[in-house]
Amino acid sequence: MGHAAMTYDVVVIGAGAAGLMCAAQAGYAGRRVALLDHANKAGKKILMSGGGRCNFTNLATTPQHFYSQNPYFSISALKRYRPEHFVELVERHGIDYVEKTPGQLFCASSAKDIVQLLLTEAQWAGVDIQLKTRIHRLERQGEGICLDTSLGRIEAGVVVVATGGLSIPTMGATGFGYDIARQFGLEVLPTRPALVPFTLGEPWKTRCAALSGVSLDVAVECGGGYFKEPMLFTHRGISGPAMLQISSLWLPGEALRINLLPDEDVATSLRSAREQTPKRKLQTWLGERFPKRLAQALTEWYGDAVDETPLAQYSNAQLDEWAQRLNDWQLKPTATEGWRTAEVTLGGVSTQHISSRDFSVKELPQLRFIGEVLDVTGELGGYNFQWAWASGVACGQAC
Ligand SMILES: Cc1cc2nc3c(=O)[nH]c(=O)nc-3n(C[C@H](O)[C@H](O)[C@H](O)COP(=O)(O)OP(=O)(O)OC[C@H]3O[C@@H](n4cnc5c(N)ncnc54)[C@H](O)[C@@H]3O)c2cc1C
Alpha helix locations (H) across the chain? Predict the structure, then answer.
């Protein structure tokens, strides 16, 4: 005789940011809830987020900070569960936080505090959390859905898929959520890694590697996007907030337009420097504006015998060439670092099948999708967690 199936009102697949939030809300709404994850720990990505401090929200969150084929989809949930709501929860749990960059809130101590908050809420709400659990198959059964798992058969009134995106497979990321979507006839839009550093071909790879660790404020443009934030040279190429942001808009083969001095019109500045201080060297002028290693590298890259040449000897054309290099450096990355280091996934389960109120599949309301598995991807700066919280709450309260 086989074992009797376990039954729950709601089974949430994925104990990440969205799944934990959703499960607690459904539990508080009086539902019997199970939260399943194949990983050995809940909230692994939360733990590694924000450099270990978790940038858990952004006070400036609006739907404009998200990429999606349907830019209207996120409006409803984001409006109902705002950054202030999560901040209130953080304060209720006595967690100290800091505003590092305007609007971006981080834990003062550790991202562990946010995972603990979510686990405490789930526990208070009576959620049954089952880690190291494999889900083999889902199938419709009467009004509900039956799951074939390593724990045995589980019958659920509602299944919420919160399996996240594809980035950092070593942290437990899988495409299982997309497989479930396809199984039930939903469209999955093409995925690609985003918020990810760029890699470069030669000679730029070697040049940038030599500057590894140097950071400066730049403006970068590509694919209709513009970000004014810091850039970082790395052993593999270029990174830092400006590059992570623009990676969400970059397509292979495209050049980035990087303004290394976004607050200065270099052509005008160099001309006036030549007039007022004709004996000065270009190296000195660069040294006043850039970290020393970069100032030196710039003159080496462009092969100018500038060390001894006074500005007076530069023609207008030469100064304009420098203005172009500094105000409009066009650099073609070879690729991105890919899923190994990407923070998020662009694309995913198309929102056209999903209700923006309760996140149920329109033709199959027993099945729901929340968080990053959906085709909703935030910019850098705490927006992705705000989406996880907002979609989790909207879905959980309606379960
Ligand atoms: C390095 C890094 C830093 C980041 N920093 C920030 C930040 O500071 N601020 C910010 O807003 N965003 C940040 N993000 C993005 C953020 O972590 C995600 O957008 C967010 O975690 C998505 O939440 P989610 O619940 O949808 O998915 P996840 O948090 O990824 O959770 C998905 C869960 O599903 C589980 N799962 C997957 N497949 C299966 C399966 N087959 N069976 C069972 N369980 C499964 C996983 O184990 C995981 O626990 C960062 C991401 C990374 C990688």
Answer: 17-28, 44-48, 75-80, 83-92, 112-124, 176-183, 204-210, 241-247, 266-276, 282-287, 292-301, 316-327, 383-398
